[in-house]
Amino acid sequence: MPPIPRMRGLALIFASLVLIGVLAAIGSFLFATHFVSSTINYVVSNLADRSGLSPFLVRAVVIAATIPFFWAVARFTRNILGLLNLGWAPLSFYSNVYGIVIVLYVAGFFYAMYWSSRDAYAYKYCADTPEGIFVSDGTAKDPVYGIEPKPCTLAQIKELRNEHGSLQAPSEIQIANVDTYQWFDGVTGQPRVWFAIGPHGHYHFFNHPGDDPHTGQPLQPVRQDVIELLRQKEAADQAAKQHAAEIEASAAETDKKRQAAAAAKQKELASIQAEIDQAQLLYAQADYKGAKETCDLVLSQRADEPSCTIIRQHASVKLARELVDQGRLQFQRGEFDDAIWSAEGALKLDPTNANAAKLKQLASGIKQRSIN
Q1: Where are the domains of the chain?
Q2: What average pLDDT values come out for the chain (372 residues) when binned by 10 residues?
Q3: Quick check: 319 and 289 in contact, CB under 8 A?
Q4: Of 29, 55, 70, 100, which sees the most CB atoms within 10 A?
Q5: 115 alpha carbon, distance to own chain's centre
Q6: pTM score > 0.85 for this model?
Q7: CATH class of 223-371
């Protein structure tokens, strides 16, 4: 019978071997689980992002389609020697059927990436050449002109999609109510409406970006200031209609003189409305000076005209900012008198412009010190 100390040593060695075996089994299970989940997530993320398909659909297809792949990996790496072959003997992939299955799946993945990325221009590289846009999946130079491509811009993507005929043309839509219409996406906050302004200042709305089918000019995404102008115009139109209805009702009960006065009043309203439309057109075209001057003329005739009050207020703020920017450049060039003049002009347009007040104070202070 072996001595007791020797039996205890053998038991300790046996227990250590059992513990090592258990830990190795747990580690193998965790490694295999991580390998499967990370591989599926990587494939699904790349294919779904570039193809635009639902990630749920892509995940379902990938899980089902990769069963033979993971079976081949399990068979190929069924022992320690198989794991070592991954690093020591890459050619072993081609020496048995399991390795060939793995290689075919890897090749199939890259083919699927190519197929799903054909129209995914956001992941491609573009170069403007004399013959058009050169598109590549990598950063290699254009082989004809040697121009180095860069990530495709939005304008390049739009041109490429238009050439392929896959970009939906904008359709004109009617806005029944400015206040209740959903102008922006509730999740992303991006515009859902694009607009163009007709020759008489009338707004035309479309459901997609692109070019105005009537003029060929690029459509503009709707903005909050445009919506505010539309809201004011709608209120003004309603007020004008109501006022015209009152004039028409009263004209039926009056003589020809009253009818002539009503006609004259209607003509005046139409003239003012034309000026308001012109001011709205100028503001939309960023001609803030023209918009303000037009509304000054309207307000000299009708001081309470709501649309032009709003337009003049917004245009004055824009002009004040431009004068502040001009004054800053003059200040940097040492033209302090001109900078003070620009700041004072900005404050006349927008007394609340803190940047104009600060610019005037700085320029005046430096000018005073230079005199002393």
Answers
A1: 26-116, 121-164, 223-371
A2: 60 68 59 74 76 79 81 66 51 69 78 74 82 81 85 81 62 83 81 83 81 80 86 83 81 75 80 86 87 87 86 88 90 87 89 88 83 66
A3: yes
A4: 70
A5: 26
A6: no
A7: mainly alpha
